[in-house]
Amino acid sequence: MRSTCLRGFLLLALTLVALAAPLGAGGQDSGARVLAVHLDNDINPVTQEYVENAVDRAEDEGLAAVVLVLDTPGGLASSMRGIVKRFLASTVPVVVYVAPPGSSADSAGAVIAMSADIAAMAPQTNIGSSTPISLGGEDISKDLRRKIVNDAAAYVGELAREHDRNVVAARKMVTEAANYGARDAKRIGLVEVIAPTLPVLLNRIDGMKTVPKGLVLETAGAQIENVEMSFWQRARDFLVDPNLIALMLSIGLIGIVVELWNPGLIFPGTVGAISLILGLYGLQVLPVSLAGLLLMILAAAFFVAEAFVPTHGALTVAGAVLFVLGALMLFDPAGDAYQVSLPVALGIAASLALLLGIALTRVVRVARRPAAVGVHELVGHDGVVRREGMVQVNGELWRARAVDDAPLVPGEQVRIQQVEEDLRLVVGSRTSTGSEGQS
């Protein structure tokens, strides 16, 4: 009986040890923590700050790794290089994981992947197409393009070489706009791992030694802490779109011009000021060409001047042309390939010219309209001569004289043609005017 109890106790103890073994070998209780930073947006100063802050946090908290879950069409070269520099300087292993399935790391995103300690992809994803273009999709001029392409190819090639990846394939992403699916990228040595999910990825890279830093990954069964962009960061990211910046600047310009033409309306000036501030915020975040900014300021000056120096629309047309040129030059493609698209610039300029043209037309009509108040409203009205030098109009007696200084005959029907400075009416014979019209 005692031996039977002993065997049962031993069996229970072995069972408990067997159940506890997986947890101690890297399960959820392994103690490792990984920061998963999700980025499904353009690469710009706002997203750069978001990623860099995440790496700073991973270092401060001593995490096992930071994983950038990436899905991006690309973005600013300056922001891309900032992220690359932060990854290279990180003391925590940095993993770039192109995911979920259907995602891509294009242009700047591919270069960022090459700077990671571990480059990974989910199935049905792609990486590449890093040939520099403007944000609107237009090719850069031939000489400038050759210079930028050579620089970008050398940059991504060196990153690939230092991380023991396929240099030729990496350079082709720039020089030939090559694009690779997950399986091809893994086969040719452009990425290290293919994994369907983040937990699987962490298990597969566990124990790997990174090149060139020599960091050993301990990520099997690690606790994953997901990080997303905050509402404020997404709002700031929305405001740095170059087309939206041009639109905000134009709305601000319209509002201020309308307020100057009609002081006291309040609403146009308020909306214009808010829009202008939002547009200026975008200009503060993005790298701006001084020449483009000066052209847009000159365009605004022309629009405002039209209200005070009537030129029959000449300043409005000149301002529209300057606005288009300034918008296209506002973000220099030689610097970061970020610019306002031509259709957007033309549309905004045409709308500005049209609105200001309508406003000018109404101003001219009002200026030509006879005065609706005071004695000048009498012009064109009919009256009756009561006695020499006095005419009755609308029940009131006015001093008057004939347009040809002929004597006024009492009872004669006359028509007011002018009001002199001394408030004396100048009248013409209504009877003679009618007879001349009949003849």
Structure description:
The protein is of the alpha/beta class and 439 residues long. It folds into 3 domains: 211 residues, 2-enoyl-CoA Hydratase, Chain A, domain 1, CATH 3.90.226.10; 129 residues, no CATH class; 59 residues, OB fold (Dihydrolipoamide Acetyltransferase, E2P), CATH 2.40.50.140. A 6-stranded parallel β-sheet has the order 8-5-3-2-1-9, with helices on both faces. Helix 2 links the parallel strand 1 and strand 2. Helix 2 runs antiparallel to helix 9 and helix 5 runs antiparallel to helix 6. The C terminus is likely disordered.
Q: Give the second-level CATH assignment, the architecture of the largest domain.
A: Alpha-Beta Complex
Shape: rod-shaped
- From the 3D structure, determine the CATH topology of the largest domain: 2-enoyl-CoA Hydratase, Chain A, domain 1
What is the count of DSSP helices, taking H or I runs of 4+ residues? 15
List low-confidence stretches: 8-12, 14-29, 135-139, 432-439
Name the CATH superfamily assignment of the largest domain.
Answer: 2-enoyl-CoA Hydratase, Chain A, domain 1
Radius of gyration: 38 Å
Structural class: alpha/beta
Helix content: 40-55%
Overall mean confidence score, pLDDT: 83
Please describe the biggest sheet, giving its number of strands, its sense, and whether it closes into a barrel: 6 strands, parallel
Q: In order across it, which strands form the biggest sheet?
A: 8-5-3-2-1-9
